[in-house]
């Protein structure tokens, strides 16, 4: 199992206690000299902890636990999680501010305690076979069992038992919030939450890479990072004349930070890239696979430049309303749409970011999905999220004095479009289904249409789709064929256009 996810770290550590066999493939970030895993809890029963992620309120938790009598031998956040679990039991998970997934194996009881952060930034899966329960960070580590593979829902925790019984409950609740009624107060609260979230994710003695597209969200991250640290380097992926590269160059120059452009030429992207992206990402929707192809190039370069940590603007569109459909959705439906988009992030964008980055041994931090930021965003009235055609209006207003005007006025485009590579990767869509089924990822979930495509085909529109859970069926062969033909035509027209320009 551990060999299947060897790419996720640099150090393999194992422990066998009673009936529990635990292994981790760890990427050393915090206390790289003394920290070890797995960790045996000091509580009665001595569970074995395997942990993945970062807890950003570790200093505060360490102080709180030490005041209550706990002692520590390392500076790692893994030990803080272990001590919190030993002292607070299952209530500990409510104390953690960060991106995490972990398992505590009971060496005598044939059961495992699982926990995952509120939005599912970090992955965790489990499966039952051979009178045992198996747990892993990626689907590919469990497919050898040949049994159904389950994802631990974001924001949940509890016990799974070898006999197939599960007792999982949410530890987060969508409590009612007081909606902002004053624009200046809302602007200040949002700005403070975002800046604090970025700052705590920059709290490391390692250099940090900033994923910079030149759009609003990544530029906000770059602006804060440039103010906080002198050793940040921005990375941008795309065709050399793509909008992302053009804007990102201007932003990096404006901030005076080092900048690396990952120049991906159209002709270098092939079906092999798609097969590798599917195998690595385990994604069900082809729109996410397209972005994974591009992300693989990006994170390979970040790794090759010696970085273990990257920070980006992922999730801001879902939190602050960065998609056109938010502006056109009636008020009585828009809250359900926000909840759905946030609830699906763990299997779409966040899964793409996790697999693409960790397959190149890079940890990505996502400040816009910090609970503090999400809670501040939930207080924004719908009318303040958009101003006509301007998306994320309040977020733009919050950073109007930080972000260059040409970024504030730049329209929203997805990664694959603004990198200039979307229609090149689209030519190889037929590869997706074959590669997905060959990897046996359908043991976890079937292929799905992209949300936008499912919405276009749903009678009754958004309301009906959300009522059905927002799950689109797999695309038909005809859909795939027509999309592929359209992509081939687009690429041929691009080549002919360039040939005419040379004449």
Per DSSP E runs of 2 or more residues, the count of β-strands stands at: 16
Structural class: alpha/beta
- Give the uncertain stretches in residue-range form: none
Strand order of the largest sheet: 3-4-5-6-10-11
Give the mean pLDDT: 91
How would you describe this protein?
- This protein is an alpha/beta fold and 503 residues long.
- The protein contains 21 helices and 16 strands.
- The protein has helices at residues 58-67, 77-88, 183-201, 216-228, 243-255, 271-281, 286-304, 316-320, 324-328, 331-344, 349-358, 371-378, 382-385, 393-398, 405-408, 415-418, 422-426, 430-438, 451-457, 461-467, 477-502, and strands at residues 11-17, 20-26, 39-40, 48-55, 98-106, 111-116, 125-129, 132-136, 149-151, 156-161, 166-170, 208-211, 233-238, 258-263, 309-311, 363-365.
- A 6-stranded antiparallel β-sheet has the order 3-4-5-6-10-11. Strands 14-13-12-15-16 form a 5-stranded parallel β-sheet, sandwiched between helices. Strands 8-7-9 form a 3-stranded antiparallel β-sheet, with no helix packed on it.
- The longest helix is centred in the C-terminal third of the chain and has 26 residues, at 477-502.
């Amino acid at each position: 199992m551990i060999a299947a996810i060897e790419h996720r770290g640099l150090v393999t550590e194992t422990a066998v206690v009673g009936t529990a066999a635990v292994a981790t493939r760890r990427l050393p970030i915090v206390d790289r000299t003394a920290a070890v895993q797995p960790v045996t809890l000091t509580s009665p029963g001595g569970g074995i902890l395997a942990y993945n992620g970062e807890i950003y309120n570790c200093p505060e938790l360490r102080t709180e636990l030490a005041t209550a009598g706990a002692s520590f031998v390392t500076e790692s956040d893994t030990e803080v999680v272990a001590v919190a679990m030993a002292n607070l039991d299952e209530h500990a998970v409510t104390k953690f501010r960060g991106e995490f997934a972990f398992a505590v194996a009971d060496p005598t009881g044939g059961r495992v305690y699982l926990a995952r952060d509120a939005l599912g930034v970090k992955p965790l899966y489990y499966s039952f076979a051979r009178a045992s329960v198996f747990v892993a960070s990626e689907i590919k580590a469990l497919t050898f069992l040949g049994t159904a593979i389950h994802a631990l829902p974001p924001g949940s925790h509890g016990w799974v038992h070898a006999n197939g019984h599960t007792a999982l409950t949410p530890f987060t609740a969508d409590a009612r919030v007081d909606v902002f009624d004053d624009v200046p107060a809302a602007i200040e609260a949002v700005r403070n939450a975002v800046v604090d979230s970025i700052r705590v994710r920059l709290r490391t003695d390692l250099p940090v890479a900033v994923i910079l597209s030149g759009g609003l969200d990544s530029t906000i991250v770059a602006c804060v990072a440039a103010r906080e640290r002198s050793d940040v380097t921005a990375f941008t992926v795309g065709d050399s004349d793509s909008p992302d590269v053009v804007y990102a160059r201007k932003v990096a120059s404006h901030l005076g930070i080092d900048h690396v452009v990952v120049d991906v030429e159209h002709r270098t992207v092939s079906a092999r890239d798609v097969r590798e992206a599917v195998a690595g990402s385990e994604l069900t929707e082809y729109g996410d696979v397209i972005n994974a192809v591009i992300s693989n190039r990006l994170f390979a370069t970040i790794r090759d430049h010696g970085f273990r940590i990257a920070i980006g603007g992922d999730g801001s569109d879902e939190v602050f309303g960065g998609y056109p459909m938010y502006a056109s959705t009636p008020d009585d439906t828009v809250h359900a749409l926000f909840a759905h988009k946030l609830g699906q992030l763990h299997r779409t964008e966040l899964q793409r970011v996790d697999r693409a980055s960790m397959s190149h041994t890079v940890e990505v931090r996502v400040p816009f999905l910090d609970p503090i930021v999400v809670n501040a965003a939930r207080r924004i009235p719908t009318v303040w999220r958009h101003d006509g055609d301007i998306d994320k209006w309040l977020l733009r207003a919050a950073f109007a004095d930080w972000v260059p005007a040409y970024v504030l006025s730049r329209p929203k485009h997805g990664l694959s479009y603004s990198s200039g590579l979307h229609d090149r990767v689209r030519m190889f869509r037929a590869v997706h289904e074959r590669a997905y089924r060959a990897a046996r990822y359908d043991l976890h979930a079937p292929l799905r249409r992209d949300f936008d495509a499912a919405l276009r085909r749903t009678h009754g529109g958004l309301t009906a789709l959300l009522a059905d859970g927002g799950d689109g069926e797999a695309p038909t062969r005809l859909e795939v064929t027509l999309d592929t033909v359209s992509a081939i035509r687009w690429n041929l027209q691009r080549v002919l256009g360039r040939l005419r320009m040379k004449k």
